[in-house]
Amino acid sequence: MALVDSDLTRDLVRARIQGRQSDAAGAAFKGILVACLVTVLAALVALLISVAPAGLDVFSTRGLSDFLLRPFSVRPDKAGVYQGTVGTVTSAVLVAVIAFPMGVAAAVYLEEYASDNWFTRLVNLVIRNLAGVPAIVYGLLGFALFVNGPFSSLTGGTTLLSTGLTLAILVLPIVVITSAEAIRAVPASLREGGYGVGATRWEVTRTLVLPNAMGGMLTGTILALARALGEAAPLFFMGAKTSIFSGGDWFDLRGDFTALPMIISDWSTRPATKWNGNTQAAILVTLVLVLGINTVGIVLRNHFDKKR
Amino acid sequence: MTVPQPPTPPGLRVEDLAGNAARNRTEMVVRYALTGAAGMSVLISTAIIVVLLRDAVGFITTIRLGDLGDSIWNPRLGRFGVMSPILGTLWVTLVAVLVAGPIGLGAAVYLSEYASPRLRRIVKPVVEVLASIPSVVVGYFAIRFLAPEVVQRLFSGAPAKNLLVAGIAVGLLTIPLMTSVAEDALRAVPSSLREASYGLGAKKVTTVVRVVIPAAVSGLVAGLILSISRAIGETMVVFLAAGGVPTRPTSPLDGGTTITAAMAAVATGTDNVAGASNTFQSAFFLGLILFALTLSLNLVADRFVRRVRQKY
Fold it and tell me: What angle do helix axes B163-187 and B83-109 make, rounded to 10 degrees?
């Protein structure tokens, strides 16, 4: 009997300890969290699906190269995104050429040179806040500086050069912040080794810090580029064209221009079905560019993260 | 008594220890160049403020102040009722935050507290893809999918373009920002807090809700404020999806305009942007309001972010 008794006790205790207590609240909570994540993914899928079919249709009936190589036209089946692609790619190159050296230089100053004084604190504060200024405000700034302002004789007004400069200013804070992070991640022992053998600050920076931080800095710049490439709001004030114009060829920095986001914005408001197909096709071209650049950035980041 | 001098190495003079003149010169030039690059950011922000103030004041002086109380914002017709775009911005931002706040927070809590490292590695890049989709594409998605398939089905009789559609789409755009800031805040909570909670016999859900989230609340608030700021500044989605209606909205189902969309509208319609006119300057007036709004929100958010850093 004692045996039975202790068996019963043992079983009861075991059931109490091991038994999966039903945790309805916990399960419900987790369910809600999963639902949030699924909503995000579903929205992304819906977005990609809703912008694809008519665009792919345009590519298959007209041929991809026909759409990519034709300029603006009043006829939807003749209109292409040649000028827009040229404008977007060129302004991205301008942004890289201007914002990368400037941003890295500012980051090097902040991380390697600056002492804790009012100027450094001001620069830090200003950069953090510039990163949060809405894109369209940069459009106003670019307009007042480059399109119709002190530098307009240099840029030629409503041109790609103005756009490149404006977008470079727009992404500069992002480049500075990510570059500063990359520089901070370089181990101090490396610098101390450099100073130990008598190198100057710039020699240490140039030969030890910058090569080691290059991966992170490039990644930051690439992700910033992707952002600049898809930005449409400032282009309103840059005078990007939405109807037929002559020019818009490669290396035409000081002529009339347009860009892919501007084309999407204009075409998406045209009611005709054919323009809808063109809009989706232009969106696909833009997404391939933006996501392609982003993928390069993310792969680079994972590569450098692993090395560290 | 004379202190014994250490023997001077032969051929080493004081000047040698002063360093190489050419190297010092390089060092100086570089220092100036780098300081200049850093100072550029100060110049840029000064330029923003000067430009906005100059043209905003230029605009204000050409109108009667009473004109700002008009019920319609249409600068081309001389109607300057600034409350229309401001109310539109408020509605869009409210909807966007109601979408992005809970969903972004939920996704962040899941990624930080529940997801396996493997799942995180797959899901994080997907959220980043959403973050990198240009806003004009999301705007197109809003008018071609969200409006007819979601909003007009839920609210029959709503116009195709309205503030609710724009707000939901802006919310979608803002989710990645909310998620990433919130996730950073949650992951910054030391695991000792979680372990202490488990040690007391708390369940996972209790630990997350009663320990982790309260400990991360500063960062979560910062994420929310940054999302609000981002939503206020979003232009393309609203420009395409809100309808550009110049009257004061009374509900989110009305068509409307926002500060940003109204600015964009001023610059469209003519391929050659014209300067100096009263109409065009109104964009700078709106820009100044927008700048002041987002700047103050960002400063507040910054304070919250720092509070997190100080604590741990």
Answer: 40
Amino acid in the structure at residue B96: A
On the question of pLDDT at B144 being above 80, the answer is yes
Under an 8 A CB cutoff, do B232 and A134 touch?
Answer: yes
What average pLDDT does the segment A264-287 reach?
Answer: 88
DSSP type of residue B66? G
Contact by Cβ (8 Å): B42, A173? no
Interchain CB distance below 8 Å, B144 and A129: no
Q: In A, which residues are within 8 Å of B284 by CB distance?
A: 140, 144
Decide if B144 touches A, using CB distance below 8 A: yes
Given CB atoms, is A302 within the 8 Å cutoff of chain B?
no
Whether residue B45 and residue A232 make contact (CB cut-off 8 A), yes or no, is no
Say what the pLDDT of residue B108 is.
94
How far is the C-alpha of B101 from the C-alpha of B165, rounded, in Å?
17
Spell out the domains of chain A, with CATH numbers in brackets: 64-307 (1.10.3720.10)
ipTM of the complex: 0.88
DSSP-assigned letter for residue B269: S
Burial of residue B126 (number of CB atoms within 10 Å: 0-12, 13-18, 19+): middle
Task: Choose the weakest-confidence range: A100-109, A119-128, A200-209, B261-270.
Answer: B261-270
Residues of B in Cβ contact (< 8 Å) with A113: 31, 34-35
CB contact under 8 A, B272 and A239: yes
How confident is the model over B12-71, as pLDDT tens digits? 676 666 677 888 888 899 999 999 999 999 999 999 999 999 989 988 898 888 888 888
Q: Do A34 and B134 touch (CB under 8 A)?
A: no
Is some CB atom of chain A closer than 8 A to the CB atom of B53? no
Q: In the Cβ-directed half-sphere of B113, how many Cα atoms lie within 13 Å?
A: 31
Domain B68-311 has CATH 1.10.3720.10: yes
